[in-house]
Amino acid sequence: MPQPQGSGTPKGARMQTSIFSFFATPPPSKAPRERKAPDSQDDLLDEVGALIDDDMLAEVVQVETTLALAERDRGCAASRPSAMPIGYKRKAAQMDVDGAEAGSADDLGECLSSDDDDDGDDDYTPEVVKAQGRSAGSRRRAAVDSDDDDDADTETDEAPPAPPSPPAPTQARPTPARGKKPGSGRSGALSSGGSLARMRFSTAGSSASSEGTPLASALGLPGTKVPSLSRANTSSESAPLLQRMQSKLQAPPTPTDAKRARATAFAKKNEERYAWLEDVRDAQQVRPDEPGYDKRTLYIPPDAWRQFSPFERQYWEIKSQHWDTVVFFKKGKFYELYENDATIAHQEFDLKLTDRVNMRMAGVPESSFDHWVAQFLAKGHKVARVDQMESRLAKDMRERGSSKKGDSLVVRELTGVLTAGTLVDPSLLTQDLATYCMAIVEAAREGAAADAGPGAASASFGIAFVDTATAQFHLCTIRDDDADRSGLETLLVQVNPREVVYVRGGAGPGRRAGPGLAAGALAKGNSVDGAELSGPDSWDGMAGISQGTWRTLKATCGPRTEWVALAPRTEFWDVPTAKREIGQAGYFGSGSWPPALQHALEHDALALTAAGGLLSYLRSLKLDADLVSLGNFAPYAPMQHGTALVLDGPTLSNLDIFTVSAEDSSNPVAAAAAAGGAGRVSGGAEGTLFSLLNQARTPFGRRLLSRWTCHPLQRPAAINARLDAVEFFLRDGDLGASLADALTGLPDLERGLSRIHSGRCKVPDFLAVLDGLEAAGALVDQLQRTHGDAAPARVGALLSALPALGGILSEFRAAFDAGLAASEGRLLPFPGSDQPYDDSMAAITALDEWFEQHLRENRKRFGCASIVYKSMGKEHYQLEMPASVAVPDSYFRLSATKAVSRYWSPELRAKAQERAEAVEMQSMVLDSYQSRLYARFDKHYSVAMKAVSVVAELDCLRALAAASGSLGAPACRPTILEDNGRCGGYVEFRQLRHPCVALSVGASSFVANDIVLGRRHATSNGGGGDGEDDPASMILLSGPNMGGKSTLLRQLCLGVLLAQLGCYVPAQSATIVPVDRLFTRIGARDNLLAGRSTFMVEMAETSTILRYATPRSLVVLDELGRGTSTHDGEAVAFGVLHGLCSRLGCLGFFSTHYGLLAESLLAPGAGRGAAVEPHLRPMYMACAVSEDEHRVTFLYRLQRGVASKSHGMNVAAMAGVPVSIVRRAAAAAERFEQGVKRRQQHIERGTDSGDAGAQLVPLTLQSDFANLLRMAALQGGGSSSSSSDGGGPAAGGHEAPIGGACRARQANENQYWSCIVDHMRRTIPHGQ
After folding, report:
1. Which residues sit opposite 101 in a β-bridge?
2. Can you give 297-317 as a three-state secondary structure string?
3. Nearest alpha carbon to residue 995 among 1069, 1042, 1064
4. Where is the sequence biased in composition, kind Acidic residues (predicted)?
5. Is pLDDT above 60 for 1251?
6. Are the C-beta atoms of residues 1017 and 996 closer than 8 Å to each other?
7. Cβ count near 25 (within 10 Å)
8. From CA 30, how far away is CA 28, in angstroms rounded?
9. Which pLDDT score is estimated for 1134?
10. Side-by-side strand order, sheet with 1009-1014
């Protein structure tokens, strides 16, 4: 490229012999040469070396040292570039946050073009200095290339304007090498990027600069690589070297130099502007490592606010309130991320990092927003979305009416915050089951002591949770929960919240003692329960949550649960604030509150407080209006006493209802999965009971089936009605298959209706909802016609309950062009279906008619039929006519060619503008048509949801039938008996199998067993056959290790659960009286987070059983007492077993390895099949033992009696323990057993030698008499109460505890007169 004027070197300087002539001046008479590779012209080095002597090199070093010292004294932090040819094209390298080169600044392509920036964001954005990331120690900022300049201040190849007046003489500094920071490189005079030894040079005649090879490299200094050079004319040696250098440095700056100087000054200034990001604090100026830090907010100093540009202020006003959230900021057709968010995008997703509007920036196209949001959410980040709220035309119109500088910005607003627990977009939801966000508030009893004893009521909880995808809210209150938080734990296991919102100030993140306090305090022998709540704030829940509650939350919720702490009263609303905010928001219009919310307002302050905290959090996410206005509020009871079988948290976990714990060695499902090659089962659905039952074909059907599984039925009539429906679908296989096929194609109607209500449903999803409702209606109508007469009562009620949807769907089918909506994803109303659209079309049609009439008039006026309308660029409706046509002066010519000219008539210009505005108005009408259409459809929400609920229940009934058919043979329909005033329950299974393990190993390989507990008739003494002529309600189970005891316990519980769920049972026959609650104490595990040992966990679960079990409960305990010494454990096991048999009378299994416990409960002289306890039956798991080979063969058969040994030595040998150790252990065990037997014989001889009066009274009988006196005192204290409170029949016809439920709870007693009397009658022989 020819050199522009003013950019070449003086003529006299072309003959100088200075070494700088190689870099500053091209040869005057030679054409530009192609640049060659540096290693292809090494022979030129000899010529260069001949021109440089030691004196010249020393002079260069001295000058550079002087310049470096002067630069340092002036405190300049950034280098200034040297003069370059005008044609040099600059590209700023974008850097990694560590300063490494990441790629060119134009890698983002069109997203960085100035067309996308309509803000006028900044007064000045420098364009030359390379974009450099800030390290941890220094947050330098540099500007970006002119390609990214918001001011569109780009450089062209044209000659620049005349240079401005030169500033005060300064030393010119060259541009740093690509990918290098200023100040990096060699030490000494040739070290820094500002050194002359790092000046860029160009090859002779080249129009583009090289990569900036240091001068020291060209001089052949050690450790440098020599580039290729084009030798210049060096015939003159007239001027001293220092003089030539000074004249070069003091040359007048070019416009490019001035721009680079501004860039340097801006970079230094910008470093100071963002210094506050080095010391991050929240809005209260609390640092992250200090107590009470709020990670959601960011403190920005007032000085920083004053220095912000309008765009920066707009960004930081939002970001400072969402510091822990990744903010996607809409600019044009892209979403951009700035500062820390950009760093996250670069480090975790490799998005390109550059500098823009004074901040680090990364960007993604608008079309891929959903994809990247899903990626960020999967990494555990929250995502905020900031959208542009006006178009360019609207912005221009607003600017014309305002003189404020800030009005030049496009209006942007936070439109939503996406979190893992509050997702509503179907494209972001990853599962069909509900994902809950939960708010919890804890209130201590007024005046209660913080150190209440074990078993005392600990606290009450108000809980509100929501499935944001369906807008379904639930309100719950747990009053006077025990110290172990059993009620809270049960709810957490059932709900499994993804986010938990709580009051800041108590335990939890951000308080003075975090989650690790429990373990640390226990390690020092201290108690952490002293951190319980107290004071007036704790009475309404505004004191936060206690340490015990926090431990329960952390131990029960999943590891990915998000914890959100809100400030009391201002962010987590109390009752007055919640009442005021809900009323002022107008969620329900002029109507009344939903019944559940109204009940909480009037009678349940804790539930309303929890709802206030949840609504406040949803408001911060911009979700409250869309969800709350639907009014889907319902009460929730984690333990539905009287209507459902109660399954508490430990039971749901121990029975593998929703998850499987492979760490539990007693878990048969995990063992079967591993044996079958299924690998490790942990936390997933495989191998669980729900995975067996989950045969539903619709998403909303699966969610309903999950709720059914948490709350099986209890009333016999309801169970039998569901069993009738299951049998109906199971008997007609073709009906079940056709119904499954029809249901498979249905979309998620429940979530779709919620999205329509919010007005944010995508057009394809809206069409899917219409099609799904139509298909559902057709399916139910077909079932009604073909099977309505033969259908059982429950199915017939569902078929007749489906509302008529035909008229509603026809109305909306006729409202818009469905074909266009399906193909293009936009709704275009048919004429007559939307008045605003009809009005806009009428206005445009009238204008089009005027244009046609105007064209005809002009053709007639000028006598030219070839006059037509032409549109050129943004100017439409131009009258194009031949150039020969003479037009009046009032016509405004817009453009012309040799042949034609184009005009606007005086009327045409106004009409063209009027039509443009009419088209824009129609566009706005079409944009709002979707919202108007959804609002019309939302009026039928209740009708549509009723149809969805009908289809969901049909799907669940068919799913239970499919699950029943997959159980294998034999499988039966259970017989459900009424209670009829019997004492205790009754369970009888013949050939019962474990439903999940039998499927894994095969039904034929699984050994089935018979189980009978209780009395079938209230007056019978027998158990029902097969030699069980005793009315035992409890089985004492013994047997070898790995003999199948834990599997037997679980399969009994699952058999009862399946029967009360309304499903078939994997047994030959099944007969039960429905139980009211199922308790389990299975497996050995500790809880380190809660600071509990294995034995403490056992005792806590056992305490819950003894406190809440009734004669109609089913209890299973596996090896109770193994976490402590032998004698202590055996004593605890004996006491618990005797209490269950003699005072509660519940059904159950008690598995143990304590041989002495089993022996002590056997009746003397009655053999090994009879027990002293009348409600206890000893049984064991049979096995075959080879003593010589130390091998045991497990038979898995349940037989009457007590196992002789546990055969632990045989199992140890099978596990690979060395035989020598096994033999020594066997010898030691034999000596222990002999010693015990000798002591027992000595006691028996002493007893037999005395007379009858000296015989010892059995310990169990002594305990019974002492307990009888204590219960009489308890009953006497409550004698003035009603029979319901004194141990008589309670509500629902069932017996209440002695002394009434309230007094029994206060005394920490849970006993029943019917069981005590029956036990005493059977224990004491007649006549004594």
Report:
1. 95
2. CCCCCHHHHHHCCHHHHHHHH
3. 1064
4. 107-125, 145-158
5. no
6. no
7. 19
8. 6
9. 84
10. 975-976, 1069-1072, 986-992, 1009-1014
- What is the DSSP pairing of strand 436-443 with strand 499-503? parallel
Separation CA 1033–CA 1036 (nearest Å): 10
The alpha carbon of residue 215 and the mean position of all alpha carbons in its chain are separated, in whole angstroms, by 57
Distance CA 223, CA 327 (A): 47
Work out the end-to-end distance of the chain between its first and last CA atoms, rounded to an integer number of angstroms. 126
Q: 443: helix, coil or strand? A: strand
- Answer for the pair 1319, 1145: CB distance below 8 angstroms, yes or no: yes
SS3 385: strand
DSSP 1311: -
Q: Which residues of 825-856 are buried (b: 16+ CB within 10 A; e: fewer)?
A: eebebeeeebebbeebbebeeebeeebeebbe
Burial of 1208 (0-12, 13-18, 19+ CB in 10 A): middle
Which residue bears the tokens 């519940």?
A: 1146
| Two structure tokens written together for 889 | 């002066």
The dihedral sign for the CA sequence 1283, 1285, 1291, 1297:
negative
Amino acid identity for residue 312 in this structure = E
Determine the Cα–Cα distance for residues 1281 and 1278; give it in Å rounded to an integer. Answer: 6
Residue 1145 CA, distance from chain mean position = 45
CA–CA dist 1057, 811 (Å, integer): 46
At residue 1294, what is the residue type? H
> From CA 869, how far away is CA 876, in angstroms rounded?
8
| Site of tokens 């048509």 | 929
Q: Tell me: the pLDDT tens digits for 168-223?
A: 443 433 433 333 333 334 333 333 334 333 333 333 333 333 344 444 444 444 44
Tell me the two tokens of residue 578.
């919640």
459-494 burial, b at 16+ Cβ within 10 Å, e below that, comes to: bbbbbbbbbbbbbbbbbbbbeebbbbbbbbbbbbbb
This prediction has a pTM of 0.73
d(Cα 1030, Cα 1035) in Å, to the nearest integer? 11
| Chain segment 135-151, per-residue pLDDT in tens | 333 333 333 333 333 33
Angle (CA) 893-894-899 rounded to 5° is: 75
In the DSSP assignment, the letter for residue 1143 is I
Q: What is the C-alpha to C-alpha distance for residues 190 and 68, in angstroms, rounded to an integer?
A: 9
Q: How far apart are CA 1138 and CA 1134, in angstroms?
A: 6
Taking the C-alpha atoms of residue 665 and residue 1046, their distance in angstroms, rounded to an integer, is 10
SS3 content of the chain, % helix, strand, coil (to 5): 45, 15, 45
β-pairing, 354-356 with 499-503? unpaired
From the CB of residue 562, how many other CB atoms can be counted at a distance below 10 Å?
17
- Alpha-carbon distance 1030 to 1021, whole Å? 6
Could you tell me if residue 881 is left (phi over 0), alpha (psi between -120 and 50 degrees) or otherwise beta? Answer: beta
> What pLDDT was estimated at residue 18?
38
Distance between CA 793 and CA 1175 in Å, rounded? 40
827 vs 830: CA distance, rounded Å: 10
Dist CA 414 CA 386 (whole Å) = 4
Q: Which of 422, 390, 336 is nearest to 148 (CA)?
A: 336
- Does position 869 have pLDDT exceeding 80, yes or no? yes
Query: How far is it, in rounded angstroms, from Cα 194 to Cα 1101?
Result: 74
Stated length of the chain: 1328
* pLDDT tens-digit readout, 243-297: 555 555 555 667 777 767 766 765 666 666 778 888 899 999 999 988 888 899 9
What's the alpha-carbon Rg for the chain, to the nearest Å?
42
Give residue 1070's pLDDT.
95
Q: Which residues pair with residue 93 across a beta bridge?
A: 104
Structure tokens at 39: 């290693």
Give the separation between CA 256 and CA 671, rounded to whole angstroms: 75
Q: What residues have CB less than 8 Å from 253, skipping those under 6 apart?
A: 163, 164, 166, 167, 172, 261
Phi, psi of 974 (to 5 degrees): -70, 150
